[in-house]
Amino acid sequence: MDSFLKPALKYFLIIVVTLAMGFAVWLLPHGKKQRDESASITTPIDAKDEAGRYLQQASEDFFYHEFDHAIENYGKAITAYEKENRLKKAAKIYESLGDLYKFRTRIQEAEAQYILAMNYHHKIKNPLGEARAMNRVGDLFMERGEHAPAGDWYKKGVELVQDVPPHQIQAVLFENMGRIYWKKEENIPEAILWYTRARDTFSALENQMGYDHMTAVLNKLRGGQNLNTH
To answer: Of 3, 42, 106, 146, which is least surrounded by CB within 10 A?
Structure first.
């Protein structure tokens, strides 16, 4: 790739990489809410801090499929965040490494990075981050049709967050539990319970997109349940 093309690509590079790595963007329609620092590691264009520059370079490496260089720069970003005592950020980069390996269909290595993320989040007493990493492993198996291990990871994540104040990670885990009971167990009443919890959590977060989606799923499940009783 000629060097003069890189500046032109830089302004949409982060968006492309974010989509490729599977990050979710949620609609908050009732006003802006303060975001958790660990919600995203996407860096601004021309980041000024050391860790941000490494992340930006890792994103460029990923875009050009220079994966070994991306891994190296993610590692440097972890070290930089640790020096700055921004440990939630450092822990989340392991999740991004897991996403990178998942993108390359190197499943065992992806799982290993997610587990490293869990261990790091656990060490710094960040249950939401730990549960998010568990959810990512669950997704890894769910997307391969391996419902049993996916459900096990989702359940572990739920155990960490079921009693915390409403949070997006919590809502997503509740939704995934509903999917397990619907698709794997074919237990519609239990699925309805979990989807209802997800809907109520999205409602508390004023997340209209999540709320509407859960409402549509619940309507479908309840409609099918009524048909089965006749």
So the answer is: 3
- CA dihedral (208, 132, 127, 206) in degrees, to 10, reads 0
> Which tens digit of pLDDT belongs to each residue from 175-190?
999 999 998 878 999 9
Angle at 199 between CA 197 and CA 201, to 5 degrees: 70
Non-local CB neighbours of 66 within 8 Å, separated by 6+ positions? none
The C-alpha atoms of residue 121 and residue 99 are separated, in whole angstroms, by 17
Cα angle 157-163-168, degrees, rounded to a multiple of 5 = 60
pTM listed for this prediction: 0.77
| Same domain assignment for residues 222 and 138 | yes
Hunting for tokens 């998010």 — which residue is that? 132
Q: Are residues 113 and 132 in the same domain?
A: no
Q: What is the number of structural domains in the chain?
A: 2
Q: How far apart are CA 57 and CA 35, in angstroms?
A: 24
Place of tokens 């972890």: 78
Tokens 């590692």 sit at which residue? Answer: 75
